[in-house]
């Protein structure tokens, strides 16, 4: 058993649970309120909210699939092409972390937000665990 892969899988599974139960509640709270806007303006705001909520739910599926893949990768005989799948997962997690940081910088967020919105830290930790696990091949 590869405990680095298993640990990364469990961490992503925990992220899935947080995303599902806490993130959904937070995402639902951003629904626009009708505050004297014209109907057409409000409909545009609400359509954008629905689109962002639907995109948010796509991440839910990604997290669940990645957690399942990483946990499956921790069992040596369960999946073919195990090394390639682990390498692609590592690149995905690195990409998530880098893009998260780029977005934070592009939005000119204060340093405190980098810590409060620190999901990028989790992605880099999981990528490091996968790197460590790949050394066992």
Automatic annotation (TrEMBL):
Keywords: Membrane, Transmembrane, Transmembrane helix
Residue spans crossing the bilayer: 6-28, 49-73, 85-102, 114-134
Protein name (record): MAPEG family protein
Provenance organism: Chitinimonas lacunae
